[in-house]
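Progress note, project year one: complex with S-adenosylmethionine.
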Amino acid sequence: MTATQFMPFFDIFLRKKINILSRIIWSYDSSGVQAKKHFGSMYEPILFGVKNKKNYTFNSKDILVEAKTGSKRKLIDYRKEIPTVYNSEKVPGNVWEFPRVRYRMEEYEDHPTQKPIALLERIIKASSNVGDTILDPFSGTFTTSFVAKELKRNSIGIELQEKYVKIGLRRLNIAEEFNGEKLEKIPKTFEKNKALIKNTPSLFT
Ligand SMILES: C[S@@+](CC[C@H](N)C(=O)[O-])C[C@H]1O[C@@H](n2cnc3c(N)ncnc32)[C@H](O)[C@@H]1O
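Model obtained:
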């Protein structure tokens, strides 16, 4: 069962324990082969929940996005005596558009479900403050810890598979080697080809 299929059950389980304030859809562009016999999945669900709904962190000012109007002009309140431009920024709604992490992207690591840095930035900025500690019990490539560090938060990351722990150790500059193995990012095919071209003597000198 994928996380998307599992989410309705998790939602029912979780809502008895915490207050779910938003059900967010992370919507992304399609890539690769799409389903042919049903509608392919183009999103992942995210639950935003808090223990105490009268006292929780939500740094709305740190995550503002442009309030798009659908037209080129600014959103104007014509009901005012002198027409006034509305605030052009807003707190994001519950449908978030971030591209998936692709092979050619700088942040790409070798993991099938790596989350984009931009997605974690929004989540961490909104729900924590500098110096707070963030837990990600399914860390994968440790994007959560990577972003937490950038944003001066502490983090605890847990990951089952050694190959991903090694990525985390390198990505977070915690270690340069693991059990005698040097932890280096594997060059991408186009990077290797570029190096090859650079090092190949030219025929036209
Ligand atoms: C969806 S991925 C997380 C991707 C991560 N957010 C990133 O940006 O790379 C889930 C990860 O949880 C790990 N995992 C699965 N079961 C686990 C368990 N019981 N304890 C720790 N990690 C686990 C998997 O190996 C996988 O790398």
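The first strand starts at residue 19 and ends at 27.
The mean pLDDT is 91.
No further modelling is planned for this target in the current period.
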